[in-house]
Amino acid sequence: MKTTIATSLLALLSVSVTGLPIDTSAALTLGKREIFGDTSNQLGNCAPVTVIFARGTVEPGNIGLLAGPPFFDILAGLIGAGNLAVQGVPYSASILGYLEGGDPAGSATFAQLTEQAASQCPHTQIVLSGYSQGAQLVHNGAAMLPASVAARVKAVVMFGDPYDGRTFSNINENIVDTFCFSTDLICKDTIIVDPAHLSYSLDATPAALFVAAHVSV
């Protein structure tokens, strides 16, 4: 049964990603420089702000294209590109991982990279973020963090979160913002990918403003 569901979802994602028009112009207004592609490995930069980001299912690279890069481009414009480091989480981003509630190995890697940011860059302000299955990794990975590392997190931003409404046991909800369109069925923990789920570039600006309000540069 899972194989059938996974195959159907893969087909839908393939059609959706390549065939549906997505209006990103509004979201990219502040980020026209398009600094970020689909891959970013800047953990070693020890910038004032470090974002650990997990991409969505079947997206390319380690930060994908649909939500991450537009968000980072605008955030860089708000706080200064030199003040921002983005580290993508390398994981399979498979449909099976989504059906499991977020790839287990990817979730562990998310936690490990967050701990590495805290230990390697003692003065960096840590932001956790993810899109779709990547948001599942944020939930799972954050739960694995020791209290001392969780206390270093300044903001959490999630897009198209299948666990929308689920709280964090070790992170203050006042620093968490989740972007879920009311018509996004993935946010209702289903396997249906609709146009709304592919349109979170439209929330890049409010997401970046939220983070900018919670960090100091």
What does this structure look like?
This protein is an alpha/beta fold and 217 residues long. It contains 7 helices and 5 strands. It has a 5-stranded parallel sheet, sandwiched between helices. Helix 2 links the parallel strand 1 and strand 2.
Please sum up the structure shown.
With 217 residues, the protein is an alpha/beta fold.
Distance between the termini: 50 Å
**Overall number of strands:** 5
Strand order of the largest sheet: 2-1-3-4-5
- Strand pairing plus helix content: what structural class? alpha/beta
Q: List SSEs in N-to-C order.
A: HEHEHHEHHEEH
Estimate the global geometry from the Cα principal axes: globular
Approximate strand percentage: 5-15%
Helices, strands, pairings?
Layout: H1 2-19, E1 49-54, H2 68-79, E2 84-88, H3 95-99, H4 104-120, E3 125-131, H5 133-143, H6 147-150, E4 153-159, E5 176-179, H7 204-214
Helix pairs in contact: 2-7, 4-5
Question: Which structural traits does this protein have?
Answer:
217 residues, alpha/beta, 7 helices, 5 strands, 36% helix, 13% strand, disordered N terminus
